[in-house]
Amino acid sequence: MPAGLTLVVGSGGLRCVAAIGLLRVLNEAGIPIAAAVGCSGGALYAAAAALGYDDARAEELTRAFWTPSVLQGYASSLKVVHERRRGFGARDGLVPAAAPEAALAGAFGEHTFADARIPLAIVAADLETGEPVVLREGLVRDAIRASSSIPVVFPPKELGGRLLVDGAIVDPLPVDVAIRDGADAIVAMAFDLGYRSRLKSLAAVQEQVTAITTNHLLRARLGFQTLAHHGEIVTVTRVRPADLDVRHRRDPVPDRARRGGGAGAAPGLRGARGRLKAGGGAEAARRSRPAASTALVRARRHGHVRKAPRQALGPATGRRRRARACAASATSVSDAVPSSAQR
């Protein structure tokens, strides 16, 4: 690879669309990309960057590829295989390859690696040996198809006598490929896979296990490569909304009480806000909730926050009125808690 900045876009499915924004920022800043490396869904956007696609064309290929038709037949095929009405082998997949291959053909046509304006590498995995395979020649669309072939979901792609599947199972963020190729500086775009809150099916459990394994593999490999690389690695990661807004989690403290904390707020409430501002995220706020809840209870004991009286109302109406009364009275927590309690 030539000296300069190497772009690495890791696996992440539809989340990889964020790479379009990164490419736009680099263009606006006048920072050229000297080489591109991609894996799985990230291979789409690494290839787009290497072929010189502009924002509009990259968005067009996104709309063409990430469609419901790509996974059409998944549920019915899963049921058939589960009931053993159909066999399943190494070359099989629950979803036919026709739809993704048609989408990739429309987006990349007959472009080969030789057509790329900058060096391009796409990472897949050998299903039979478990080895990572770095693709650098042939049709770009075939390499992307191989790198994004989720095992079991899509059939493997046979290239060079090997059955190739999703590169995420061996190298979800192929920074090591850029390092071996002599990259001076690397911008790596990483995406963690979200976890399911409900695990009530075989597919859900399988997806959860895959996400856990991939996330841990990503962190372990990136940590080692960051320490080992003599140059500069800048990692751009996806941040979950729940890490930015505590309201995405259940909170025993009423919203109005949480928002009302100022300089004289109860310790738990003030601590939660301070840790959020300091970058602690939702996890830090979660740890502070017992203290916040204790402060609210203490205020109630002193008579500063009163519970709504139980009245002869219907169950639903009574609960709503009591909740409103509690939320309204809790706004005085900041001023009402004694200074000794705040210390």
SSE diagram, text form:
Elements: E1 5-9, H1 18-28, E2 33-39, H2 41-50, H3 55-65, H4 74-82, H5 98-108, E3 120-126, E4 132-135, H6 140-147, E5 157-159, E6 162-166, H7 175-180, E7 185-190, H8 202-228, E8 232-237, H9 255-259, H10 267-277, H11 281-301, H12 315-330, H13 333-336, H14 339-342
Parallel strand pairs: 1-2, 1-7, 2-3, 7-8
Antiparallel strand pairs: 3-4, 3-6, 5-6
Helix pairs in contact: 2-6, 3-5, 5-6, 10-11
Mean pLDDT: 74
Q: Beta-strand level of the residues, as a percent range?
A: 5-15%
Q: How many β strands by DSSP?
A: 8
What is the number of helices? 14
Cα-to-Cα separation, first versus last residue:
59 Å
Roughly how much helix do the residues carry, as a percent range? 40-55%
Low-pLDDT parts are 239-316, 325-343
* H-E string: EHEHHHHEEHEEHEHEHHHHHH
Seen as an oligomer or otherwise, the chain set is single chain
Structural class: alpha/beta
What attributes characterize this protein structure?
single chain; disordered C terminus; eight-stranded mixed β-sheet; 343 residues; 45% helix; alpha/beta
Short description:
With 343 residues, the chain is α/β, with parallel strands linked by helices. The protein is built from 14 helices and 8 strands.
3D architecture notes:
By secondary structure, the chain is α/β, with parallel strands linked by helices. It contains 14 helices and 8 strands. Strands 1, 2, 3, 4, 5, 6, 7 and 8 form an 8-stranded mixed beta sheet that branches. α2 runs antiparallel to α6, α3 runs antiparallel to α5 and α5 crosses α6. The chain is globular. The N and C termini lie far apart (59 Å).
